[in-house]
Amino acid sequence: MIPAPFRYQRASSVDEALALVAEYGDDAKFLAGGHSLLPLMKLRLAQPEVLIDLAPLRELSYIRDAAGHIAIGALTRHHDLEQSTLLAQAVPLLAHAAGQVGDPQIRHRGTLGGSLAHGDPASDLPAVILALDATLVARGPSGQREIAAAGFFQGLFETALEPDELLVEIRVPKPAAVGWSFQKFTKRAIDWAIVGVAVQGSSVALVNMASIPVRAGAVERALASGVGPRDAAAHAAEGTSPVEDINATPEYREHLARILTGRALEEAAGRAG
Amino acid sequence: MDRDQRGSLVKVMMRVNGAEVSADVEDRMLLVHFLREVTGLTATNVGCDTTSCGACTVLLDGESVKSCTVLAAQADGHDLVTAEGLAGPDGELHPVQRAFRSEHGLQCGFCTPGMVLASVSLLRENPQPTEEQVRMGLEGNLCRCTGYHNIVRAVLAAAEDLAAESGELAPGELASGELASGELAAGEVAR
């Protein structure tokens, strides 16, 4: 399978990337690791006329300890997140979940920013970022702005990023020393999660239970009222709208959400203990 | 943008198995097609073509990648190793290749080039893996013949060989699983 023809452009700076996307507009897509976009292009489900390769922007690949949060460059690869001792110590949920994305080959190419900007509700890291209450930093022609993770994902493959904006940094608050867990259910290791759940303290976010990653609000409220993990997890499917596809019916996804949330809350409680 | 600009060409230069290769290729050309059709190195197989099976795995700057999901243009300026580039200049097999043969880690052979390169990358990152780490580390490579057991044995045997070899080369050092750079540079040249 070969993508439809497109023009390949390489950006050597963030400013050049913004200038290129301003020039080509909706016809253009940014290319980071390409492990979400290129498969869609090969299936002709995406047919951008221009690809703006961000690979030369090495300055957007970093994991830094900033006051109160960890700053992660948007082009930091899953492999780098997985291997980072700083992240393993400060935000172990993200380091662990990054190591569960796809397979080693995919983690050698795929980036955190690419995964988030792609906006696929079946991806692992959008839900993790949501559970962590991260802040996303975008740069556009009029400067830089911050977007809360809670408002970033707006629909299937749709985010709060404007067409002429580039996601440049993800700021993850350092969680207080509380438990965490990431659970997902797949048929094969390399598949998208049929359902997944990320837990950080009393924050719970679900993978693939709606057209966007969602917080399990009913579970969080139950936990806040003092209910135990198993009983709280019984609320995991409330307010969700899972799709039916080749892998699962909505009812099966709801069942998985309850089971996986129960396991995640118990594992998190064990770690917090 | 003008339609006639579609299908434009991009100039790429990369090192493939130690040899400099340059070509003008279509912007949309995939790395696996570049390797097979431009450099003539056909050990790299196209299997599923959907980033699943790992038959097209090559090393990009020493790390395993699926070359069906990388553009040739993205590999510009980088260092590639295919199965043809693993053996030494005198044809001596790489320890991972040797182990796949001695442990019978293949049957039909279709997944083997990708499996071997994924294993080289795995051992470079984790020179002394447990059996479970080998199984997890090869989760991106599918084999429809062997049932994986002999492949896992081969990778564990290669890890021992590499540890012993690096012990001979540099006593007291941990096995790195790293190809000596000279070995890379002297690897088989693209035909």
Give the helices and strands, then pairings.
The complex is a heterodimer of chains A (about 270) and B (about 190).
Chain A: E1 7-10, H1 14-24, E2 28-31, H2 37-42, E3 50-53, E4 63-66, E5 69-73, H3 78-83, H4 85-90, H5 92-98, H6 104-109, H7 112-118, H8 124-131, E6 135-140, E7 143-148, H9 149-152, E8 153-155, E9 158-159, E10 166-173, E11 180-185, E12 195-200, E13 203-207, E14 214-215, H10 217-224, H11 229-233, H12 250-272
Parallel strand pairs in A: 1-3, 2-3
Antiparallel strand pairs in A: 4-5, 5-10, 6-7, 6-10, 8-9, 11-12, 12-13, 13-14
Chain B: E1 9-16, E2 19-26, H1 31-38, E3 57-60, E4 63-66, E5 79-81, H2 95-102, H3 112-125, H4 131-137, H5 149-169, H6 181-185
Parallel strand pairs in B: 1-5
Antiparallel strand pairs in B: 1-2, 3-4, 3-5
Helix pairs in contact in B: 2-5
- Stretches of chain B where pLDDT is under 50 for at least 5 consecutive residues are 171-191
Q: Assembly state here?
A: heterodimer
Rg of Cα set of chain A:
18 Å
Quote the CATH topology of the largest domain in chain A: Uridine Diphospho-n-acetylenolpyruvylglucosamine Reductase, domain 3
Major sheet: arrangement of strands of chain B: 2-1-5-3-4
How many distinct folded domains of chain A?
3
Structural class of chain A: alpha+beta
Number of discrete domains of chain B = 2
* Overall pLDDT metric of chain A: 96
* Approximate helicity band of chain B: 25-40%
Tell me the CATH superfamily of the largest domain in chain B: [2Fe-2S]-binding domain
Q: Note the run of SSEs of chain B as H and E.
A: EEHEEEHHHHH
CATH topology of the largest domain in chain B: DNA polymerase, domain 1
Q: Count the helices of chain B. How many? A: 6
Unreliable stretches covering 5 or more consecutive residues of chain A: none
Order of helices and strands of chain A: EHEHEEEHHHHHHEEHEEEEEEEHHH
Overall pLDDT of chain B: 88
Please state roughly what percent of the residues of chain A sit in beta strands, choosing from under 5%, 5-15%, 15-25%, 25-35%, 35-45% or over 45%: 15-25%
